[in-house]
Every structure is written in structure tokens, then in C-alpha cells.
Amino acid sequence: MEQKQVFIINGGKRLSGEVAIRGAKNGGLKLMAASLLFEHPVRFTNVPDIADITTMQKLLESIGVMTTKTGDALSIDARKLNATHPSNELVKRMRASIIIIGPLLARLKKARIVYPGGCVIGKRPIDFFINGFKTLGAEVRETNKLTREIYSFSLKENRGGEIFLPFPSVTATETFIMAAALASGKTIIKNAACEPEIVSLAEFLQKGGARIEGAGTNTITIEGTHGKLLALKKKNSIPVIPDRIETGSFAILASLLGDPLRINNCNPNHIESLLLILEAAGASIKKGDTWLEIKAPEKLTAVDITTGPYPNLATDLQAPLSVLLTQSHGRSLIFETIWEGRLNYLEELKRMGANVIVCDPHRAIIEGPTQLEGKKMESPDLRAGLAFVIAGLVAKGTSVIHNVYHIDRGYERIEERLKAVGADIRRADESILRADDNLKL
Ligand code: EPU
Q1: Is the whole model's pTM more than 0.90, yes or no?
Q2: Which of 62, 252, 279, 340 is deepest in the core (most CB within 10 A)?
Q3: To test the ligand 1 pocket, which listed residue (56, 171, 342, 405) has its Cβ within 8 A of the most ligand atoms?
């Protein structure tokens, strides 16, 4: 069995120099699924080297698709797609697996999927997918009625239709775009999500001949190709857009410890709401088209934050931002509107010395500043895991973060990139902790 790993962090160091942002996890995963709609192999670049991308590669391979990763390039050849039921084990590893229903229905008119897993951050229902596909004429069956575990979707005719999403769900919007791209009619998605990853997906499909209008707004119209597979006119590689959550996380870190810190290969326009908050907190921010330079202020000021669908503050940035609020002067209110299980990590920040009151599953108050003390922590999910890394970098003393596999799902070799800008962080096998008497936490 693979050895479990931890991060060991000695906090308090200022950070300076440059860090390059990698391709977006939640962008790359969707492009990979969308390559099922192409009649030829597709090549992507700027693909991050993270566990979720590997899981999606294996998932695609479980239905007959060939994938090849060389450095940051990934080729996907779906010409031999031959199955409608991706591996249960892989689907359970990652919520994003659900999007595979879209291209499978477009290509084979059938999809069978186990209830997807992923980070435990809330209920994560799939009713929008079930109801939306029913509206598009699909028959949806729960194959195992008792456990409600396996869902079968089948379409007699992929004719399109009109869907109103009860909430602008990111993956539901993407799944319906992919299902509609090859339909024999028009699909309109109302109350669609507007995230940059959706625009990137639509642009990729458009390059292959799909007719999509309105991506990036809340009404998206797709005129299907009547079953004709997509083909790129120029066989160029398609770059994955920069990860806006990674960009935002480094921007938060720089606002705490930047001396200054320059963030390259990013798109500052994708985190405008966060930058407003950081400026209000006192950070000094310079920016260009593809970079940011941020210096931490002498004194951070409290700010109220509310997460919401794009272009509002991303829920995936809420946990790292809370660490900043523990260092800000005054009282801040956190209102997490998307997930009801995404404030649990605050208990760990309290143990580190933060002054936090959790009001209900969606709201918390942080009173700052407080000196955080290094502690031993279990990373509960990807984004809270990164928040603990940031907290460890800010804290006095040593922190040990367990379950780093959660962090590796979404951030490529984060410790190496942090070390390069002055952080004292290292990765170690868990067994070292038993051997190292200096790590009494
Ligand atoms: N919802 C339903 N029913 C559904 C689908 C969604 O009620 O069938 C609700 C959810 O419970 C939630 C809201 O709609 O309250 C929004 O969820 P959404 O569907 O937009 O989330 P998602 O598509 O599952 C993506 C990202 C998440 C990110 C959210 C919100 C991917 C693969 N995941 O999830 O990213 O938090 O959008 O922006 O794109 C992460 O990367 O760590 C992560 C969790």
C-alpha cells in the first residue's frame, strides 16, 4: 500500500518571488469528457499533473477511450468508445465524473453511472441532471431501487429541448451542453452557470463545429449537429485555461505574506470579486493581463464575504479566505451560500487559536486578528486542505497536515512551488512523525 503523506510546515516566513499558475482542474476535466464528441484524437496542453486528471483518464479508459499524457500535454482518442458504464470505483472517487453522462448520451444514447463521490462539502444531489434529461426525453431508471446507487439514462432520440435549472449548477450546465452538441434539434439552457470553465468548454466545442451561443451568460442556446461528430479545422492543441481557484489561493496567501509575490500565467479577470475583497482588506495589488503582484499590508482589515455563482466570490475560495480573516482587524461575517458542509474546517482554525463563531451551516463570524499556533490537522477536503496549508504558513511554530492526497487532487506539487517562494514546507511519509520527537504537536 502507498505510504500516507503529510506536509510539515514551519510558519511565519514572508514569501517573495514568482509562482506560475497551472491549468484549471475544473476546466481540464470537462475538456477531457468533451473529447468524446470528436471524430479524431484531441490534444490538450497546460494540463495539470494532479490526481483528479489521472482519475478522469482512467475513467475514460474504462469505457474504451485511449489517453496519453506526456508532460503537460494530454491526448485523448475516443474513436473506440465502446461502453456506457464507466468504472464504479473511479466515478465514486470524484464528483466531476457525473459530466460523462452528457457525451455518452450524445454518442451512444445510453449512460449508466453509479452515484458519484467526491469532497464531502454538502448534500451534492443529482436531481438537476435527472430532471433535465427527463425534459430532454430521456428515460432515467434507478437500477438498484434499494440503494439508489446506479442510474441508467437512455434516449430514443436526442432531439434537444428547453431546460430551466433551479440553480445555476456548473456541472449540470456543462453536461447539458455536451449532450446537446450533437442533438437533432435546439436546446436552450436557462439559468445556466456562467463560470469561465463553461466558456472554455463551449469554445472548444465551437472550434469543432458545434453551434453554441450565450456561454458565459445565463441563457445558452445549442443547435445540434444532427449526430455529426465534431472535428477541429486546425489540429492545434487546446490549452486548458489557468486555474482561477489556484490563482485566488495564491492571491490570498500573498495578501497575508507577500513581500511581494508575483503570480504568473493567470487570468486576473476570473477572480475580480476576490480581488475587490483583498483590496478592501488592505492588500496592495498590481495586475496585468496574465499576472498579479501582491504585497501584504502592515495591517489587514476585516471584510464580510458572501460566496455565490460566478462572477460572485467562488465557494472554493471561502476556506483560504477565512484564514486571511483570522489575521484581519475587526469582525468579519462569512456567508457560504453554495454548500452546507463547507464550514466544518473552522473547528480546526479555532484549535489553532482563531476566534470563530459558527452561527449555522452557512454562516460564521471571525474576530481578528489572532496569532495562530501550529497544530496537527487532518485535511477534510481539497479546498479546506489548502486553507490549512495557508494557516500553517501564517502560524507560529510547526503544523503537520495529514491527508495530503486531498490537496494533491487539485494542486500540482504545491509544496515545491511554495518552497520556491520562501515557504518552509516539506512533504514526508506519515511514518516519520512517529520517529521524529521534535514534532510534538
Ligand atoms: N445542486 C442540486 N442538484 C443538482 C446539482 C447541484 O441541488 O443536481 C446544488 C448543489 O447542492 C449546490 C448548488 O446546486 O448547492 C451548486 O452546485 P453545482 O452543481 O454548481 O456544483 P458542481 O457542479 O457539483 C462545481 C465545482 C465545485 C464548485 C461548484 C460551485 C467541478 C467539477 N466542481 O461543482 O468545485 O464548488 O461547482 O462553484 O466543476 C472543487 O473543485 O473543490 C469543487 C468542489
Answers
A1: yes
A2: 252
A3: 171
